[in-house]
Amino acid sequence: MPLKTENRKLKTAAAALRALQSPCRLCPRNCDSLRAAGKHGVCGLTDELRVFCCTLHQGEEPPISGTRGSGTVFFTGCNLRCVFCQNYAFSQSMQGEVITPAELAARMLQLQTRGAHNINWVTPTPQLPQAVEALAIARAQGLTIPLVYNCSGYESLAVLRLLDGIVDIYLPDAKYADAAPARLYSSAPDYPEINQSALKEMLRQVGQLQLDAHQIATRGLLIRHLILPDNLAGTSAVLRFIADELGRDTAVSLMRQYFPAHRARNFPALARGITWEEYEAALECFDALGLNTAYIQEWPDHCEH
User: Fold this and answer.
1) SS3 59
2) In the chain, where are the structural domains located?
3) What pTM was computed for the model?
4) CB–CB of 7/166 below 8 Å?
């Protein structure tokens, strides 16, 4: 896409997103908060751009972090309220600093200069107007690396459609198959249906995951699924949806990293990590469904089976 055309598209998208921010309809909650008037949305934010940190991050999946790291922007706030959130310090406790879109653009350009394979927006949904405005500035000043949209998977279709042609790589969660745990643990009983529609739209926009000669992602969809204790996430149903509705070539990251962070110990079912047997069952289900591309986390030798 020519630079002028891309810049015009970004500015148009930023304006459309800004119109959805106050009263706020940027996410499926449609909380209608007057964020431009200083009112906080369900996400905990007004219309200020608040960022926890910008860093080269090595902790993502191999095609995202690669060898040089992912240029990660950790945005403050989140549209979910997961009781087990491992990033609660900035997703719910709202740590972070207020910056301008121009300052965010400069930080993204610095990450590119430091060798980042991509720009990786973590939980950007509540701050998309400002983030896209920053991206327009950065693109005009020479940002060329792909954009990763790293989110909870609880996304508005109308908002996702505004990102068509802007996002290169979608990195969403698929957290739950059933409404009951989604309600109890993330305050989002409609999560499964919203998530499934969002995943289909993401795939429509960017297709299956594409890697370059160095096995670094350049475009496409990579879905994350966190295994929870006692099958609370409904892993088999989540994987079956992916296989049947998105295709067996859809890339999936099966994460074993759950631990009872934040308020999880207040919920007996979440008060422990997962067992090897639970993770193994997820791997076996993946294979049985004929899915082809898995990113898995090795089980540490010091952990008991």
Assistant:
1) coil
2) 3-296
3) 0.96
4) no
Query: Residue 98 forms beta bridges with which residues?
Result: 50
Estimate to the nearest angstrom the gap between the alpha carbon of 230 and the chain centroid: 24
Reading the chain (305 residues) residue by residue, the pLDDT tens digits are: 666 667 899 999 999 999 999 999 999 999 999 999 999 999 999 999 999 999 999 999 999 999 999 999 999 999 999 999 999 999 999 999 999 999 999 999 999 999 999 999 999 999 999 999 999 999 999 999 999 999 999 999 999 999 999 999 999 999 999 999 999 999 999 999 999 999 999 999 999 999 999 999 999 999 999 999 999 999 999 999 999 999 999 999 999 999 999 999 999 999 999 999 999 999 999 999 999 999 998 887 645 44
CA distances from 112 to 13, 129, 141, 286, 292 (A): 23, 22, 12, 35, 32
C-alpha 180/C-alpha 124 separation (Å) is 26
CB 276 within 8 Å of CB 227: no
List b or e across 113-145, with b for residues whose CB sees 16 or more CB atoms inside 10 angstroms: eeebbbbbbbbbbbbbbbbbbbbbbbbeeebeb
Nearest-angstrom CA–CA distance, 59 and 17: 30
> Which residue type does 275 have?
T
Q: Which two tokens stand for residue 258?
A: 């759950």
The highest-level CATH class for domain 3-296 is alpha beta
Integer CA distances (angstroms), 299 to 173, 175, 278, 279, 305, in order: 21, 21, 12, 9, 9
What's the token pair of residue 60?
């993502």
